[in-house]
Automatic annotation (TrEMBL):
Gene3D superfamilies for the chain: lambda repressor-like DNA-binding domains
GO molecular function: DNA binding
HTH cro/C1-type domain: residues covered: 34-88
SUPFAM superfamilies: lambda repressor-like DNA-binding domains
Protein name in UniProt: Transcriptional regulator
Domain of life per record: Bacteria
Organism whose genome encodes this protein: Gemmobacter caeni
Length: 98
């Protein structure tokens, strides 16, 4: 796999802003959010997994939507990057709830 160029601070901040916007709009599923956080940091799966105390295979499972992570696991993923676990309301249409 080719080595990635490290992200500039501006690129990383832009990616973090995009993640926040997508999360606020309810557009991020958990697997997509985990991958987006990792990519915003410019980290490989192995480097990210080590940083948050997971195995690379466990991280891969989470990014693919497999498994049922504990709250503590999600907090370990989010906290180092200044993020919190929370509920985001979905925007409803004028016709009412789904």
């Amino acid at each position: 796999m080719p080595k990635q160029r490290p992200l500039t601070r501006e690129e990383s901040l832009a990616r973090h802003r995009e993640i926040a916007l997508r999360a606020g709009r309810g557009e991020l599923r958990l697997p997509d959010a985990i991958r987006a956080i990792r990519e915003a940091e410019g980290l490989t799966q192995a480097a990210f997994a080590e940083r948050v105390g997971l195995t690379r295979m466990r991280l891969l499972d989470l990014e693919k939507g497999r498994g049922n992570p504990k709250l503590e696991t999600l907090q370990r993923i989010c906290r180092p990057f200044g993020l919190e676990i929370g509920l985001v309301p979905r925007i409803r249409t004028l016709s009412g709830p789904e």
